[in-house]
Description:
Blueprint: H1 2-32, H2 34-39, H3 41-49, H4 53-59, H5 69-101, H6 105-109, H7 115-145, H8 152-182, H9 186-209, H10 226-232, H11 236-259
Amino acid sequence: MKTIFCKEFRRTRIGLLIWSAVIALITFFSISEYPVVSQNIDRVEEALQLIPKIGQLICGVYDIDLTVPIGYFAVMYYWIGLIVFTHAIYIGASMIAKESRDNTVEYLFTKPYTRGIIVWAKILAGFLNIFVVGAITIAMNLLAMLPVTSDPTVYGQVFVSGIGMLFTQCILMLLGFLCSAFFKNYRSGVMGAATVLIGSYCLMFFVQNIDMPSLNFLSPLTFFAISEVIRNGLNILYVLISVVEIGVCIFFTQRLYSKKEMIT
């Protein structure tokens, strides 16, 4: 398992650096706009009022108080999440499927490893990728808030929201694994994962548009909605649901991969 794990991480390290750099740049440019926004807050809020609710949701600015630093961070969180969540589901979707794409599956199956060990090694390598991106995201967000505020409460909210984002990353990554194990080839697996991510965003917008938090369970993107985490912290119920969903995804990925015909 260690050999596969190390090889898988080496194969993703360049991509990991690129994704991390993108997150750092988005964070930097986002926070650099804060002085301009804060100085023209009245005009910004007037402009936002002209946008329909669904448009505000899609832009990540609905029900956000931009007059306080944590409100501006909530908008940053939304846009950074677009990158972080796409990375998470892509990592899951590609790790299994790329063996058939790169014609390395025949070589892999000649090694003395069961398919269960192969899947676990890839999942652990995926988790390492997710944790690295999650840690960089949290660190960059905390650093970005240094010139904005010295309020320790804000830093606590930023950190907790990062933990919530990390849970969401793990769920999306494993949904990507599930898609990859379900579909026969690389293209179908990645397209299936992309559909899952787009569907998750659509469900998130739907739940937020009708103002029914009780339906947050419909999308992993609403488990730890930034506005709710800022107000109340992590919801222990959704932490438990996340753990269960992660376990279910791992179980079915193992089952599907054990029956999958990879050699085409």
